[in-house]
């Protein structure tokens, strides 16, 4: 159901505004009207927002993820150590942030330096590893050995050019020579290692430069050390760098342990302080008094008045009244019995219901598990869904807990329908001699038409209920076209039902004046309410009712697939292959049963049922209150 809201105006003494706002924050029931642009752009509010952003950025850099372990007691302890004045509190937080930033910058600098060194040295190690055999072979030669970063095409051109020019070099005491070795790395870079006599060197360097090549050198820290000697030092450094990286990561983890929870608590407190400040600057001041206007649930009004009166006496006045035409949009708040509250999850996929409209959560709680359970219709699958629902109900996520509760309801109806259909993992219940399970109603795998007829009757009742709710809503809201269209559809449906019943009973034709009259009045209402579109809508409603046959169709397919699983045991016997095939098909059928039943039962509610009356709202009730959900243990 939807909470009844009252419009409230709070007048207070400006000198006590922070205390009054803080008390309203603790009460957590006051919904403030939309804040003005001036309030949102308040300088102090902007600074708080920026500081909150810096705190959150630090938490992300520290990769701290202990939100679930944060307790209210810890947050309150951090609040106790911070000043109550916003300016002083922000200055204290800034000093702490500066210390953390300094420490973090030092750790990150060390880590980035180590990571950079590791990447540079690792590539150098790969280059020297590929070059090592050639370097060892050429270490006693009198020529100059060099490594060139050069494309494959450039290498081929360079080698061809040098070898082609060797014959034209002046021959002296020793014949000019040129040797080379080429290799590629996995990153796509190509290198050429050369060893050449002194006469070849000028031509080699000029040709390499012309081909776009660059001479590769050891990292600067190695000075003029030889390539082979540098390779040995690089190997030793690479053995030590992982320890430095681990040390940097450990220091970062220690910093996160030391400051993560405190930063998270500060982030929460800054959020709260921002909300309180927004409330304070949103208040309209007139001399020594201020005024706040908003909404409070009717059942919380008396408590709010009592608390404010006890704490502030005549320094605050609260006046309330029922919503009026000039109050704009009234916020909507849902309030359902704990049994039906998880089914509010279905409305989170839509806009929240309009204030004064009908909240379908209780009816979804009644019909959704009933429909889904009818589609599953198997005791064995129902037990598995029961286990899955209980497992999800234990999770910390609110959404998963709600899904778990919904599955528990589906499991209950799956077992009930399984008993009525006589199904336990398909026909396993029939086969086992100590069970000899038989249906209490019908065997849906064989009695298809009765189950289909029952599904259509069920759909008719469901759609009629939706139309009736839509008609009542239209009357209450004084929307003539809506209630007349819904009433017309109801009369047409009742007329068709009456006609079918009279045909079935083979009564005299004079009795048909009743369904004819119902159809005639229904058409009049449809035309008055929606014109030709109303008649089309009525035909669509009949189609909606027929679409409920999907309950029987999906249930039938599930039952047949479960029976197919047993057939594999008949074919292969009680063997590993037979049991594996049966288990695989049952697992597939179980997944399809959950997914198919949930999807189609939800569609029947969203389209066929709620489409007849659901009216979306625009404003959700968001009280001025603490929004944290922490572990209180």
The total count of strands amounts to: 9
**Number of domains as seen in the coordinates:** 3
Instruction: Note the main sheet.
Output: 5 strands, antiparallel
Tell me the structural class.
alpha+beta
Approximate helicity band: 55-70%
CA gyration radius, whole angstroms: 39 Å
Secondary-structure element series: EHEHHHHEHEEHEHEEHEHHHHHHHHHH
Strand content: 5-15%
> With helices defined by DSSP (H or I, 4 residues minimum), what is the helix count?
19
Q: How confident is the prediction overall: mean pLDDT?
A: 87
Termini separation: 32 Å
Describe what this molecule looks like in 3D:
Strands 1, 2, 7, 8 and 9 form a 5-stranded antiparallel sheet that branches. The chain has a 4-stranded antiparallel sheet with strand order 4-5-3-6, sandwiched between helices. The model has no long low-confidence stretch (mean pLDDT 87). Helix 4 (72-81) crosses helix 8 (227-282), helix 15 crosses helix 17 (532-546) and helix 18 packs antiparallel against helix 19 (576-609). The chain has helices at 17-27, 37-40, 43-61, 72-81, 86-138, 152-165, 201-210, 227-282, 298-312, 361-376, 379-393, 398-421, 428-431, 448-477, 480-505, 513-530, 532-546, 550-572, 576-609, and strands spanning 5-13, 31-32, 144-149, 178-184, 190-196, 214-216, 284-286, 289-297, 316-321. The protein has 3 domains: 5-94 and 250-327, no CATH class; 122-239, Alpha-Beta Plaits (2-Layer Sandwich); 341-612, no CATH class. With 633 residues, the chain is of the alpha+beta class. A hairpin with a 2-residue loop joins strand 7 and strand 8.
């Amino acid at each position: 159901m939807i909470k009844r809201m009252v419009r409230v105006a709070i007048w207070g003494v400006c000198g006590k505004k922070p205390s009054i706002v803080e008390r309203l924050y603790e009460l957590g029931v006051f919904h403030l009207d939309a804040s003005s642009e001036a309030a949102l752009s308040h300088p102090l509010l902007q600074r708080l927002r920026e500081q909150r952003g810096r705190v959150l950025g630090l938490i992300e850099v520290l990769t701290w993820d202990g939100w679930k372990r944060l307790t209210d007691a810890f947050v309150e302890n951090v609040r106790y150590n911070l000043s109550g004045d916003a300016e002083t509190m922000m200055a204290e937080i800034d000093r702490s942030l500066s210390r953390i930033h300094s420490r973090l910058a030092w750790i990150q600098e060390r880590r980035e330096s180590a990571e950079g060194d590791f990447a540079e040295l690792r590539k150098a190690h790969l280059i020297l590893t590929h070059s090592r055999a050639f370097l060892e072979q050429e270490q006693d030669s009198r020529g100059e050995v060099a490594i060139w970063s050069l494309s494959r095409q450039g290498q081929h051109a360079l080698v061809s050019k040098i070898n082609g020019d060797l014959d034209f070099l002046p021959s002296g005491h020793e014949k000019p020579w040129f040797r080379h070795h080429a290799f590629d790395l996995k990153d796509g870079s190509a290198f050429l290692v050369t060893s050449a006599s002194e006469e070849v060197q000028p031509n080699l360097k000029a040709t390499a430069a012309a081909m776009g090549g660059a001479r590769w050198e050891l990292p600067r820290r190695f000075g003029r050390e030889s390539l082979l000697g540098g390779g040995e030092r690089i190997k030793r450094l690479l053995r030590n760098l992982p320890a430095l990286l681990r040390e940097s990561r450990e220091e970062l983890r220690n910093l996160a342990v030391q400051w993560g929870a405190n930063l998270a608590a500060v982030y929460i407190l800054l959020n709260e302080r921002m909300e309180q400040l927004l409330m304070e600057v949103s208040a309209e001041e007139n001399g020594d008094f201020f005024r706040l206007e908003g909404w409070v649930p009717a059942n919380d009004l008396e408590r709010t008045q009592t608390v404010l009166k006890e704490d502030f006496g005549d320094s605050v006045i609260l006046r309330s009244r029922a919503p009026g035409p000039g109050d704009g949009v009234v916020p909507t708040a849902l309030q359902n019995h704990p049994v039906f509250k998880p089914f509010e999850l279905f409305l989170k996929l839509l806009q929240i219901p309009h204030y004064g409209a009908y909240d379908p959560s209780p009816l979804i709680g009644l019909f959704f598990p009933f429909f889904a359970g009818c589609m599953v219709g198997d005791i064995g699958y129902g037990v598995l869904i029961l286990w899955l629902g209980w497992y999800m109900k234990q999770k910390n996520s609110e959404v998963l807990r709600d899904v778990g509760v919904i599955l528990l309801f589906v499991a209950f109806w799956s077992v009930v329908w399984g008993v009525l259909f006589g199904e336990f993992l398909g026909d396993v219940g029939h086969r086992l001699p100590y069970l000899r399970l038989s249906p209490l109603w019908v065997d849906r795998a064989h009695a298809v038409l009765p189950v289909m007829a029952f599904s259509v009757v069920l759909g008719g009742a469901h759609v009629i209920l939706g139309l009736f709710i839509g008609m009542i809503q239209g009357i209450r809201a004084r929307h003539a076209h809506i209630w007349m269209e819904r009433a017309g559809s109801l009369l047409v449906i009742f007329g068709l039902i009456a006609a079918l019943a009279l045909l079935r009973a083979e009564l005299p034709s004079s009795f048909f004046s009743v369904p004819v009259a119902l159809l005639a009045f229904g058409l009049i209402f449809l035309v008055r309410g929606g014109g030709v579109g109303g008649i089309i809508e009525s035909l669509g409603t009949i189609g909606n009712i027929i679409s409920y046959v999907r309950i029987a169709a999906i249930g039938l397919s599930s039952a047949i697939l479960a029976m197919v699983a047993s057939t594999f045991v008949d074919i292969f016997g009680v063997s590993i292959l037979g049991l594996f095939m049966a288990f695989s098909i049952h697992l597939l059928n179980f997944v399809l049963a959950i997914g198919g039943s949930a999807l189609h039962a939800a569609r029947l509610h969203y389209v066929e049922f709620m489409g007849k009356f659901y009216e979306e709202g625009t404003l959700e009730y968001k009280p001025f209150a603490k929004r944290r959900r922490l572990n209180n243990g």
